[in-house]
């Protein structure tokens, strides 16, 4: 009997550097690997979406749409894949349905093939319109189950959610484990349950991070249960809060009834390329290698590396453990949402506020909205005391309908606003950039002509910095100011040192 071929989605061009180095990798450090990635035999290449759009305009002075067009040109044989936050698109709020349609349409026009559509709360109402928009433009709509663990989340519940996504027209399903919480047996049980309930021909993709050290085994069990495609990252861009190594998956399947049919010679060239590039981004790297505490904190890879770099930048790296201990408590108060953008940032930022200022003394606007239903429904009941604090702070009442149903048509207004900006080129894509990041887009559009800025550092630059930083290691004196940013809004908190 010939082996069953397992498809592989390579995530080096998006989620790998998002999780390992706070999404800072410049396009110029990826392009030379694209020919080999394109010819290696992947089911898809994840290269856009998630936090890359934000990072492009916030840190790299790079047009994310040009990045997508470049990938399309350099990888003509590949299915390009993106991560889309349902009604949030790539921003941090819900958008009116017309904006969602326009974004999907433009993404498809510029080269996107597979849209992995998810909602941070697993609320199907927040995925339905984006999925319909993907199908309308004839692209692959992948419905996503965000995996988390709580007293309320069960295998049966995940299987039922899969059915809702299939009813919406999902062409495939993704089981997305952003925090490396998916242990081997649940991986087997959920995938097997989906196949037995909805048919063996139901395509299931499995996405795991590697932070807890158990998930390569989880991928094996998912494959044994019938998973069709798994996500990995080339080894030089893997592990830690990132993903399992592509070459390790290939080796793991040798001698079994499964194969990947990947071209190992091409993989090794991709590996060597990123091995040379990765040291340039050392200052953005997460310090985490393996952390089984995440089974209790549930902090996903991308959130962890961003939180660490944010706290380190403010001289507050010593508070990370306190914040990690607070995260699951805040998560429970919010009704046990999965922690994935933007819910991870909302819960994480509130945890920082709770540690620095006392529990729920101050709510971020986003956390208050989460508590009042303005992001959608969670599986669990929200803590009624915190709901009351949110009501008092925002002067708003809780809602139960789909949040986007409260939005007025906004495309024409967005066009009008964007057209006033310096550097606006009149395109729908510039309007979308403004729509998603209204506080960052004006600066980006005004300076776009200066071209991309690579924030990676060569060995020579790093050495020069090291020799000039004679003050390194000196104890911090006086009060410390923490800056916590979410969706372009920055909150500043000053704390006296004891």
What does this structure look like?
- With 498 residues, the chain is α/β, with parallel strands linked by helices.
- It has 21 helices and twelve strands.
- It has helices at residues 12-21, 34-39, 52-59, 64-74, 97-109, 128-136, 155-167, 184-198, 215-225, 246-253, 264-277, 294-297, 301-313, 320-333, 343-357, 365-371, 384-394, 411-418, 428-436, 441-447, 459-468, and strands at residues 4-5, 7-10, 44-49, 80-84, 114-117, 140-146, 172-177, 204-208, 229-232, 258-259, 480-486, 489-495.
- The strands form three sheets. The chain has an eight-stranded parallel barrel with strand order 2-3-4-5-6-7-8-9, surrounded by six helices. A two-stranded parallel ribbon has the order 1-10.
- Helix 1 (12-21) crosses helix 13 (301-313) and helix 18 crosses helix 19 (428-436).
- The protein is globular.
- The mean pLDDT is 92.
In short:
This protein is an alpha/beta fold. Helix content is 43%, strand content 12%. An 8-stranded parallel barrel has the order 2-3-4-5-6-7-8-9, surrounded by 6 helices. A two-stranded parallel ribbon has the order 1-10.
Keywords:
498 residues; alpha/beta; eight-stranded parallel β-barrel; 12% strand; globular
Largest beta-sheet characterization: 8 strands, parallel, barrel
Shape: globular
Q: Name the poorly predicted regions.
A: none
Count of helix runs? 21
- The oligomeric state of the chains shown is single chain
Radius of gyration: 22 Å
Strand content: 5-15%
The averaged pLDDT comes out at 92
Distance between the termini: 69 Å
Q: Helical residue percent?
A: 40-55%
The count of β-strands is 12
Q: What structural class results from the helix and strand content?
A: alpha/beta
- If strands are numbered along the chain, what order do they take across the biggest sheet? 2-3-4-5-6-7-8-9
